[in-house]
Amino acid sequence: MPLSQESIDICKATAPVLTEHGEAITVKMYEILFANYPETRVLFGEAPENQHKILAGAIVAYASNIDNLDALGSAVEKMAKRHVQTNVKPKHYPMVGESLLQAIKEVLGDSATDDVINAWKEAYFFLGDILIARETELYAQA
Ligand code: HEM
């Protein structure tokens, strides 16, 4: 499903504030993810100490290019390859999505209105579907 123009507009408008709090949001996201879905911890076994900075960077890059997904092409390929190496599967996407949205709510507080959360939800799963499709191809080739 294509991203709605409304969601694109909201994501672009809120990208700067997410950038500003990117690291806090990602740290919180891992806290929530590992508390609610401890089975995901093993996937990050070899993760570098700065993993949360990498993910924060990806969110920001996505936010900045939400209406120009071609610019994300090589980043998508890199993420998909790493996800396949670490055995990330489609079932994990809702776990990370839920944790990320919860983290955005907690860090942004009142500025995380329902409209903002819904726009990011749409955007997260839009990118998630692109990654899942590429990862499914890579798993099939392996
Ligand atoms: C839209 C959703 C997602 C985005 C934007 C994203 C982004 C990224 C990025 C940028 C990297 C680093 C790639 C590299 O340069 O090596 C990465 C690695 C990784 N991601 Fe994701 N990811 C997403 C979903 C998920 C999900 C659902 C999981 C499952 C829990 C996951 C688990 C991992 C793991 C285990 C690594 C490798 C860490 C390491 O050992 O280096 N990601 N992801």
Q: How would you characterize the overall build of this protein?
A:
The protein contains six helices and no strands. The protein is an all-alpha fold and 142 residues long. It has a single domain, classed as Orthogonal Bundle (Globin-like). Helix 2 crosses helix 3, helix 2 (22-36) packs across helix 5 and helix 4 (73-85) crosses helix 6. The mean pLDDT is 89. The structure holds protoporphyrin IX containing FE.
List the helices and strands and how they pair.
Blueprint: H1 5-20, H2 22-36, H3 51-64, H4 73-85, H5 92-108, H6 114-141
Helix pairs in contact: 1-3, 1-6, 2-3, 2-5, 4-6, 5-6
Protoporphyrin IX containing FE binds next to helix 3, helix 4, helix 5 and helix 6.
Would you kindly provide a brief summary of this structure?
This protein is mainly α. It has helices spanning 5-20, 22-36, 51-64, 73-85, 92-108, 114-141. Helix 5 (92-108) packs antiparallel against helix 6.
Question: What count of domains describes the coordinates?
Answer: 1
Determine the number of helices (DSSP H or I, runs of at least 4 residues).
6
Number of strands: 0
**Broad CATH class:** Mainly Alpha
Structural class: mainly alpha
- The mean pLDDT is 89
Q: Give the terminus-to-terminus CA distance.
A: 28 Å
Approximate shape: globular
**Can you tell me the residue ranges where pLDDT is under 50 for at least 5 consecutive residues?**
none
Largest sheet: none
Radius of gyration: 15 Å
Q: Secondary-structure element sequence?
A: HHHHHH
Hetero compounds = protoporphyrin IX containing FE
What is the CATH T-level topology?
Globin-like
